[in-house]
Specification:
It is a single chain. The chain is of the alpha/beta class and 339 residues long. The chain folds into 2 domains: 96 residues, 2-Layer Sandwich (Nucleotidyltransferase, domain 5); 196 residues, Nucleotidyltransferase, domain 5 (2-Layer Sandwich), CATH 3.30.420.40. It has 14 helices and 11 strands. Helix 10 packs across helix 11. The longest helix is centred in the last third of the chain and has 22 residues. Belongs to the eukaryotic-type N-acetylglucosamine kinase family. It holds the Pfam family BcrAD_BadFG. It comes from Photinus pyralis.
């Protein structure tokens, strides 16, 4: 087999991972860096960051910067539209001609599905932002969410952080009473943003808006929920309900081949929010019971980086052989069986 090198890039709003494979499917190197969502950064900065990380991975693998990869798969948040995707790729070819000979590009959900199957599946991403997508074996897609922090992001870390802050504002204004005491949430908000007054929060959401910093509040809320704060528990329950609704929407369009797999329909759950499954499941499970007809559904998580799926995606789309063992890339953490 010709000794070629294929790369994969996992790019989200908060972090980016690059991985390089040789023609035997062995990992040559990895590199990690900051987020690469072109809607947040602009395409020019997005390309620069990716090129810098790919070249870092090349050097770690003992490859010169001026020898292009055979292929590079890009699985990036914000890459749902083919027109802008190709614009991003054209910029790589023009500005960084030695980076890679060919490209395959898709959303982060495309890359995550590719991690566990080349026959399609469902991915529900709940990290800084959120997105749920179904890819059927025939290539048809159905998406629910993924519209960013203004139009979407239900069930995401940002969504929960925003809900917590809004809940405090509305309760403090006596516009809408919170279902539980806001004392713990307000202390947590003050600590996270370094503020003393709710007026001090406004620059964080307007003048100096940083989505990933706001989303980081949800990790502290999960600690409070685990310690028993009712309002924090309520926010996570609501997030679980929202994520289940997104999954239920795409399940309705899933092919029989996916639904009738040996262990039922498989949903790949990606992102830091899923680490709080114990807090999400109270809202999640009733929605699956009520709004779907599936007999079995398994929730699985990756045991590797989504960049692996990006490289697989590139190999499949560009007709390059790349050996792989899907079973090593994921593990099940919950199985729903209808009574």
């Amino acid at each position: 087999m010709v000794n070629i090198v294929i790369g994969g890039v996992e790019g989200g709003a908060t972090h980016t991972t690059v991985i390089l494979f040789d023609s035997r499917g062995s990992i040559l190197s990895k590199a990690k860096g900051p987020g690469t969502n072109h809607f947040l950064l602009g395409m020019k900065e997005c390309r620069r960051r990716i090129a810098e990380l790919v070249n870092e991975a090349k050097r770690e693998a003992g490859l010169p910067d001026d020898v292009p990869l055979a292929a590079l798969g890009l699985a990036l948040s914000g890459c749902e539209q083919e027109e802008t995707n190709q614009e991003l790729v054209r910029g790589f070819l023009e500005t960084f001609p030695c980076l890679s000979e060919r490209y395959a590009i898709g959303s982060d959900t495309d890359g995550s599905v590719a991690c566990i199957s080349n026959k399609g599946g469902i991915t529900c991403i709940a990290g800084t932002g959120s997105n749920t997508i179904l890819i059927n074996p025939d290539g048809s897609k159905v998406q629910c969410g993924g519209w960013g922090h203004i139009l979407g992001d239900a069930g995401s870390a940002y969504g929960m952080a925003l809900e917590a802050v809004k809940c405090y504002f509305e309760d403090n204004d006596q516009f809408k009473k919170a279902p539980y005491s806001t004392d713990v949430i307000w202390r947590t908000i003050q600590e996270h943003f370094g503020v003393t007054s709710h007026l001090d929060l406004l620059p964080h959401f307007y003048t100096n808006f940083k989505k990933d910093h706001i989303a980081g509040l949800s990790k502290k809320l999960s600690v409070c929920a685990g310690e028993g704060d009712e309002l924090c528990k309520h926010i996570f329950k609501t997030a679980g309900r929202d994520l289940a609704r997104c999954i239920a929407v795409v399940i309705a369009k899933a092919s029989d081949e996916l639904i009738n797999r040996e262990h039922g329909l498989q949903v790949l759950c990606v992102g830091s929010v899923w680490l709080s499954w114990d807090l999400l499941k109270e809202g999640f499970i009733p929605i699956i019971e009520e709004q779907t007809d599936v007999r079995q559904l398994s929730l699985v998580k990756l045991t590797t980086t989504m960049a692996v799926g990006a490289a697989y995606m590139a190999a499949d789309r560009l007709d390059i052989q790349l050996p792989r063992d899907y079973n090593q890339n994921y593990e099940e953490f919950y199985r729903f069986v209808r009574k």
